[in-house]
Write a structure and sequence with these properties.
Layout lengths: L4 E3 L2 E4 L4 E6 L10 E6 L5 E7 L6 E3 L7 E6 L4 E6 L8 E9 L6 E2 L7 E6 L1
Parallel strand pairs: 2-11
Antiparallel strand pairs: 1-3, 3-8, 4-5, 4-9, 5-6, 7-8, 9-10, 9-11
Length: 122
């Protein structure tokens, strides 16, 4: 597919956990950095996390550090986002994409997918 496909969202109570998955676009190579972004209702899309092609370098937005973990499986061209200690302010549509820098101005390189909705209730 020419765009990523995200899944795994849902409704969870505050303090709960979710694991998002993303099937990368057909243009993705195992050496490409991949990232997660999110867009809350009425707000613009924002960076959440990035992982290098090898998976040994990661970076996170300050708002999710210590709670979210990004990982990848290059054999499957799949990227994951483990989200723990979720807060109502994490409610958003989550998207993944190949990313280009430089940090901290990460931007998506492919067409955006439909995303997956995460709703955190208080």
């Amino acid at each position: 597919q020419v765009q990523p496909v995200e899944f795994g969202g849902g409704l969870v109570q505050a303090g709960g956990s979710l694991r998002l998955s993303c099937a990368a676009s057909s243009r993705t190579r195992s050496t490409d950095a991949m990232g997660w972004f999110r867009q809350a209702p009425g707000k613009g899309r924002e960076f959440v996390a990035v992982i290098s092609g090898s998976g040994d370098i990661t970076d996170y937005a300050d708002s999710v550090k210590g709670r979210f973990t990004i990982s990848r499986d290059n054999a499957k061209l799949t990227v994951y986002l483990q989200m723990n200690s979720l807060k109502p302010e994490d409610t958003a549509v989550y998207y993944c994409n190949r990313v280009a820098g430089p940090a901290p101005n990460w931007r998506g390189m492919d067409y955006w997918g439909k995303g997956t909705l995460v709703t955190v209730s208080s």
